[in-house]
Amino acid sequence: RRTAPDSAPESDSFKARKFTLAELVDATENFKAEYFLGEGGFGKVYKGRLQGTGEVVAIKQLDRNGGQGIREFVVEVLTLSNAEHPNLVKLIGYCAEGDQRLLVYEYMPLGSLEDHLHVRRASRKVLDWNTRMKIVAGGGEGVAGAAKGLEYLHNKMKPPVIYRDLKCSNILLGEGYHAKLSDFGLAKVGPSGDQTHVSTRVMGTYGYCAPDYALTGQLTFKSDIYSFGVVLLEIVTGRRAIDNRRTGPEQSIVEWAKPLFKDRKKFFQMADPALEGQYPVRGLYQALAIAAMCIQEQPNMRPQIADIVNALNYLVSQKYDPKIHPIQSPGSVHSSRSLKRDSEEKFDLGFGNEEKLEDLV
Ligand code: AMP
């Protein structure tokens, strides 16, 4: 079993640049409040401009008293410095001086998907259907989406990496809503040989964490697939993974969605009301079908990321076009007709059925 390393590797094994603290203090004018971008589980993030190159970057200052700070720091630097993909936030460098640990990333100007989905601002438009699909699946013109980043971690990296903390606040957006996965602090080097899992302390984020992982602490690639399903559900429904403002089972997006998945007539109730009915019926249906498969209780019933990427490629080819697609309203005659047309096709969403993802494409 391979686990993430506990001690810092030789410095020449880093692809990332080593910065001095003075350089990063300069870049952020001593971590000025107005450059503050946000705060995650491991520390505060500031916008900065590197002296010399003028490059704009995001600088994460890891909490000193976190206990796990140093270990997470090493994991993140190691993982990210080996990972190069258009859908992963690029790690530019790091700083380890005294007890200070900082990471320097490419700056993602549009912030996190979480903000766009759940934080309303007067200056910001509601994400339309095509943009939502572009974020998760790609734009079709050579711009891939968040799913491709996960595919890279699972299938292309050697050794493969389980992300472990996939959620909307870890999907950051660049120009043109180009999505990239960030925050590899929890990433776990995957099982090697014929092992199927790595055992870990259960970490990650409530609401996104697969039930099997929460129960057993056995982390598999299918734990990430569950989290991906939750993210896809959030994108389609506009609900939060966990919403403390609601009561009972409605608090959890998965508990809310499960009974609705059993009844096709209820699919329209799942579309984000903020979309105001502007989405392609088939697209909604297929996105929900993919999400439903990902959040199945049984990890071996969940699809692999490569199959999800294929299904999503098909999904993005069906763009919403207001000239072709009528505005949907729950229960309207038109809606039920289009739904019927779709339901006559081969896929079915009953939970626990033996549906294959390939049937969707
Ligand atoms: P994190 O600790 O990575 O979860 O980051 C906390 C918050 O800081 C994120 O939700 C973003 O709003 C912001 N942030 C983190 N990394 C970047 C980045 N590379 N570019 C722009 N904003 C970022």
TrEMBL record:
Any one annotated GO CC term = plasma membrane
- Protein kinase domain location is 31-315
Keywords of the record, alphabetical order, are: ATP-binding, Cell membrane, Kinase, Lipoprotein, Membrane, Nucleotide-binding, Serine/threonine-protein kinase, Transferase
Binding positions for ATP per the UniProt entry = 60
Give the matching InterPro entries: Kinase-like_dom_sf, Prot_kinase_dom, Protein_kinase_ATP_BS, Ser-Thr/Tyr_kinase_cat_dom, Ser/Thr_kinase_AS
**Quick one: where's region Disordered?**
326-361
Q: How does the protein associate with the membrane?
A: Lipid-anchor
Extract the PROSITE patterns matched here. Answer: PROTEIN_KINASE_ATP, PROTEIN_KINASE_DOM, PROTEIN_KINASE_ST
Which superkingdom does the taxonomy of this entry point to? Eukaryota
Compositionally biased region (Basic and acidic residues): 339-361
> What's an example Gene Ontology biological process for this entry?
pollen tube guidance
Q: Where in or outside the cell is it found? A: Cell membrane
* Record GO terms (molecular function): ATP binding; protein serine/threonine kinase activity
Where it mainly occurs, coarsely classed, is: membrane
Q: Which family does it belong to?
A: Belongs to the protein kinase superfamily. Ser/Thr protein kinase family.
Q: What is the protein's given name?
A: LOW QUALITY PROTEIN: probable serine/threonine-protein kinase PBL5
Q: What is the organism field in this record?
A: Sesamum indicum
